[in-house]
Amino acid sequence: MRIQSLLLADAIVASPDGKLAILGAGVDRIAATQFPWAQAQLSVFVGMRGEGDADAVGTQHDLRLRVLAPGGGVVAELGGPFTVNSPHPEVDPLTAVQNAGLVFQQVQFPEAGVYFVEAVLDDQSVTAPLHLVETPPIGQPQWVAVPSLPAPT
């Protein structure tokens, strides 16, 4: 099984037929008003494809997601083993697509900087950058220095 795509989003909703609706796809920046910052939710889509008998329906794999701090430490982690399944038996079970939508809750970001979300599937690792930037709170005045004009004569 190989990772084909890794996408950060605001939310992911699963339907009974196996489809995932991805809302706010393409997150690569979080604007925080202060640090440390607690992000209520960060959703991650991982698209995977089988590559033969070792990935057939019923086989076991391990998928882990980690949020890595600018210095390399682990900020949050989730995931675990899963069994390959296919909601579409007419598709070749050896090359079927396996999608996963996982959600981090209350991720604690200690400081601004470039974090990485890492997906590790068995022996393969893929990362996506996530920029944490500090911005003023919405509704707060943002004062800008304006050069003074000479007094009228």
How many whole angstroms does the radius of gyration measure? 21 Å
Q: What's the shape? A: elongated
Mean pLDDT across residues: 86
Largest sheet: 5 strands, mixed
Number of helices: 0
Measured as a percent range, the helix fraction is: under 10%
What would you say this structure looks like, in words?
The chain is mostly beta strands and 153 residues long. Helix content is 0%, strand content 56%. The chain contains no helices and 10 strands. Strand 6 and strand 7 (74-83) form a beta hairpin. The mean pLDDT is 86.
Please name the defining characteristics of this protein.
mainly beta; five-stranded mixed sheet; three-stranded antiparallel sheet; 153 residues
Short description:
With 153 residues, the protein is mainly β. It has strands at residues 2-9, 11-14, 20-23, 29-32, 37-49, 60-68, 74-83, 97-109, 113-121, 124-134. It contains no helices and ten strands.
Helix and strand arrangement:
Layout: E1 2-9, E2 11-14, E3 20-23, E4 29-32, E5 37-49, E6 60-68, E7 74-83, E8 97-109, E9 113-121, E10 124-134
Parallel strand pairs: 4-10
Antiparallel strand pairs: 1-5, 2-3, 5-8, 6-7, 6-9, 9-10
